Amino acid sequence: METADIQSLYHQVLWAALAVAFVFGAVAQRTHFCTMGAISDIVNMGDWTRMRMWGMAVGVAMLGFYGMAWLGWIDPFQTIYTGPRVIWLSALVGGALFGFGMVLGSGCGSKTLVRIGGGNLKSLVVFVVMGLAAFATLRGITAVWRVQTVDRVAFEMESSNALPLWLSSVMGWSVPSSGLLVGGVVGVGLVLWAALNRDFRASADNWLAGMGIGATVAALWWVTGHLGFVEEHPETLESVFLASNTGRMESLTFTAPMAYVIDWLIYFSDASKVLTLGVVTVAGVVLGAFVYAVASGTFRWEGFSSTQDTALHIVGAICMGVGGVTAMGCTVGQGLSGLSTLSLTSVIAVLGIVLGALGGFRFQMWLIERE
Question: Any stretches that span the bilayer, and where are they (predicted)?
Answer without folding.
Answer: 12-33, 54-74, 86-104, 124-145, 165-195, 207-229, 249-267, 274-295, 310-330, 342-361
